[in-house]
Amino acid sequence: MHPILKLVAQRVALSLLLLSAASALIFIGTNILPGDVAQSILGQSATPEALANLRRVLGLNEPAITRYFDWLFGALQGDLGTAQTNGRDIAESLSKRLTNTLFLAFWAAIVSVPLAILLGLLAVRYKDRWPDKLISGATLASISIPEFLIGYVLMFYLGVQLRWFPSVAAIRDGMSLGDKLEVIALPVMVLTLVVLAHMMRMTRAAILNVMQSAYIETAELKGLSGLQIIWRHAFPNAIAPIVNVVMLNLAYLVVGVVVVEVVFIYPGMGQYLVDHVSKRDIPVVQACGLIFAAVYIGLNLIADLVSILANPRLRHPK
Amino acid sequence: MADILLDVTGLKIEATAYPPGEPPQDITIVEDVSFQVEKGKVLGLIGESGAGKSTIGLSAMAYGRGGVRITGGVININGRDIRVEGTGGLRKLRGAEVTYVAQSAAAAFNPAKRLMEQIVEATLAHGRHSRKEAESRAVELFGKLGLPEPETFGSRFPHQVSGGQLQRAMTALALCPEPDLVVFDEPTTALDVTTQIDVLAAIKEAIRDTGVAALYITHDLAVVAQVSDHIMVLRHGKMVEYGDTDQIINRPAMDYTQALVSVRSTDHEEKTPSPQPILTVEGVTARYKNAPADVLRNVNVEIHPGQTLAVVGESGSGKSTLARVITGLLPPSAGKTVFDGRTLPPSLPERTKEELRELQMIYQMADVAMNPRQTIRTIIGRPLEFYFGLRGAEKTRRIQELLDEIELGDGYIDRYPAELSGGQKQRVCIARALAAKPKLIICDEVTSALDPLVADGILKLLLDLQKREDVAYLFITHDLATVKAIADSIAVMFQGEVVRYGPKSQVLSPPFDDYTDLLLSSVPEMRLGWLEDVIENRKMESAGN
């Protein structure tokens, strides 16, 4: 077998193992919390008889391990259970929310990743000169300001004062792609500003590290120009660390957008999760936790695979 | 007057140094150096490290490493002063008119790109040829340089070819744009002797066939004598002597040049073996974890008290692995080591403090074998504390004694390794090993990273110490000249096996087996025409790695 296939298979198997461990942790965590579903459904009207009754109906008297596997196999078949608060099917309400969140994350990534890498390359090209300092300073400032503040500032100037973009990201089914993009323009900007600095600085650091190599001197002595050297000779050798940090930020775009979604009243996963956490809707919290874990692990798996594939020694063994 | 390609007059090169705790200061690296290279001729630049050879070589491309600046003089190429060129003009010069062959091709090739892509890159960037023409020229050069399968060689990645092949590929890279001048910066220094000779011959032939001029930089006078028409000897950034090759080699005028010519003439009378060896290696076979094959196969050698066994061979022959087995770092899969009559436990953690003390080691890279944040006092004092429990004034007295033994007088005890020269660092490592009063010291390529004259000094010191302290050496080296200078007995290793073993006089006298003959004949000799003679007469092809 090609050694690379073996490595890839190993990584995929490890990721699946990690995901099942995460699912167990989520399940254990939500079970440790005081009280149970029956209690929170009945609330004030809980009598011992009613509790016992409901527990039997919900299958809460089964041992935890049985309930865990019931939940896990259900989740594998797309059945995440029903929400306690409104009795709806979680998978159904979640899939719409997840689609929205992924839509927002996707466009934020489309804007921020190329921009971050381009800015990183420019910062290396003009290292220690004003473009480098400007890029580093600006991105650092944007990551230092809390995202809700950036959100409100952009909303005030671009939404309210200049009226360029709508301040509320009210996305609906049946909107055209153009309309949808207009609606999410402001949250995409905020997310871009939040993740840009981390990716750009890592790109800069990774490439500067490679720029110390002897083969960069070879390239200089071939009479190549600065950007040619960075793009053709340094960047291909800096891909692995860059992809890693890009994937971490993509994961953040899916998992960490709660605040931005709330600010722009965007109907995504984050809002849904916050709503149900405050109502102590355990099945929904579990379902969201599982999906977030899957996204995190999946993106990091991709980062690992890209790093492996970017290594010529592994791609082309002796 | 002949056609002058490169004309350098009054070259001055400076750099900024940042001594700790002091303001930055400008230091002069090269001063008042003038030379000329005619079209199609080769000028050899020779000197020790720090003599400014590489700096001068790179100045032909108006390039300075790090903070190095060309601050004075005129550098004319094809009648044009390149010091007044702007960035654009220099870019047109580099990779087109003048190209560069780096010392370590392994580091100078981009690991992420195929060789062909990198070799034709400069030719294409300067619009000298179309891709098709450039590639066919590269293939032709591969053939000329003796690379395997010239048609498909370029589609490989750097890690897929050996060190010697990479060095030739680098030469192809430099010759592909049809430059007027190639700067060869120690192109064979990192190679095994047997490989060096092939690469050297290939470079020489390529220079002759393409009619290109070259600056050939090396610290090895015997090597430069084979390829150059003229030689300039440099020391401390200044010119010592400049003349044609025949005059420099056969009639050197200056003392320093004479010392360079006569280096490697240290000899050492062989001692007779005593009845009781200090170390016996019996039938040792060893393999690294997860490795497909044994690195050592059935190795049997003996070392006698106060004597030196030299282990010679090319890289990958298993020399250093043998040292790892003896020190216990790699337990053998079969066989044993007997030290002073007792069988040593195979792995390091099982050995007693006394067994550890009696067997010390000195490494090739003195730089990385010492903690840069410790003073010489701490470095040498550590074994004194650890093995003998010495403290305070007693310890200081002993450290001073050891420093005297390695000929580093007062004032060194509180210095840091960074404040010492390469040879001095290696001396401190020797003192550290001696501090444990060992019966055997394993010296792993201890002189390979040093300049010839400095290496000579270290060898003389080691011989002196052996006489005084009666310590035995296991001396690992790839350099046969060193072996002649220090050994009492010799083991020649090839692919994990000892192919020839015995007293020095016997191992080094004919009849030779093919491998020993190849090794011996590959050691460069200070004689014009030596290269051609060797290539003509040898019985066995080198491994080509």
Task: Walk me through the topology.
The complex is a heterodimer of chains A (318) and B (545).
Chain A: H1 3-32, H2 37-42, H3 48-58, H4 64-76, H5 90-125, H6 130-144, H7 147-161, H8 177-210, H9 214-221, H10 226-234, H11 239-255, H12 258-263, H13 269-278, H14 282-310, H15 312-315
Helix pairs in contact in A: 1-14, 5-6, 5-8, 5-10, 5-11, 6-8, 7-8, 8-11, 9-10, 11-14, 13-14
Chain B: E1 4-17, E2 25-38, E3 42-46, H1 53-59, E4 69-77, E5 80-81, H2 87-93, E6 98-101, H3 105-108, H4 115-125, H5 131-144, H6 150-153, H7 163-175, E7 181-185, H8 193-210, E8 213-218, H9 221-227, E9 230-235, E10 238-244, H10 245-250, H11 255-262, E11 279-286, E12 296-303, E13 308-312, H12 319-327, E14 334-339, E15 342-343, H13 353-357, E16 359-362, H14 376-388, H15 392-405, H16 422-435, E17 440-444, H17 452-469, E18 472-477, H18 480-486, E19 489-494, E20 497-503, H19 504-507, H20 514-522, H21 530-537
Descriptive account of the structure:
The complex is a heterodimer of chains A (318) and B (545). Chain A has 318 residues and is mainly α. Chain A has helices spanning 3-32, 37-42, 48-58, 64-76, 90-125, 130-144, 147-161, 177-210, 214-221, 226-234, 239-255, 258-263, 269-278, 282-310, 312-315. Chain A is 76% helix and 0% strand. In chain A, 33% of the residues are buried. Chain A has 15 helices and no strands. Chain A has a domain at 104-277: MetI-like (MetI-like fold, Orthogonal Bundle), CATH 1.10.3720. The mean pLDDT of chain A is 86. Chain B has 545 residues and is an alpha/beta fold. Chain B has 2 domains: 4-264, 3-Layer(aba) Sandwich (Rossmann fold); 279-372 and 421-509, Rossmann fold. In chain B, 37% of the residues lie in helices and 24% in strands. Chain B has a 6-stranded mixed β-sheet, with helices on both faces. In chain B, strands 16-17-18-13-19-20 form a 6-stranded mixed β-sheet, with helices on both faces. In chain B, α4 (115-125) packs parallel to α7 and α14 crosses α15. Chain B starts with a strand and ends in an 8-residue tail after the last helix. Chain A binds chain B through residues 213-215, 217-225, 228, 232-233, 236-237, 310, 312-313, 316, 318, and chain B through 61, 63, 65, 90-96, 99-100, 102, 104, 107-113, 118, 121-122, 125-126, 156-157, 159-160, 173.
